[in-house]
User: What shape does this take?
Amino acid sequence: MKSLPYFCRGEVVRGFGRGSKELGIPTANFPDSVVEHLPSDVNTGIYYGWACVGHGDVHKMVMSIGWNPYYKNSKKSMETHVIHTFKEDFYGEVLSVVMVGYIRPERSFDSLDALISAINSDIEEAKLKLDQPEFLKLKTDNFFSSSSHSPSAATTAENSIINGH
Assistant: This one.
């Protein structure tokens, strides 16, 4: 995909409420305005990269882009699982991400356990890939230290999602 790495940010909004409760894998959801600005060559599926909440540290992440076939969603979403344990929810905070690679297409699963197992495999794959030098260098990209990390800046950022710095 020519658009990778892809940089975007937006305010964290409430999703379907399944990540933490049903799956035990919390996710941060981008608003529709961010999802709608994805380049056409960014296919649905599972991606890996780096994420930062507000002015916090940069962590590894996996992201699902699509309709989540297991749940038969009618609305396309971008759900980010930041590979870090946070003390509390961060709704309303600005989430900045850089997607650097593609793991697999989205697909449906026969059971919730099969879905959870696949997500955990995706997380392990992301951890390994992000340790490679070409991806590790993006953890310290200037994108994560730019000044657009406040909720009011996110409102502006939502209307002009960028791929770059």
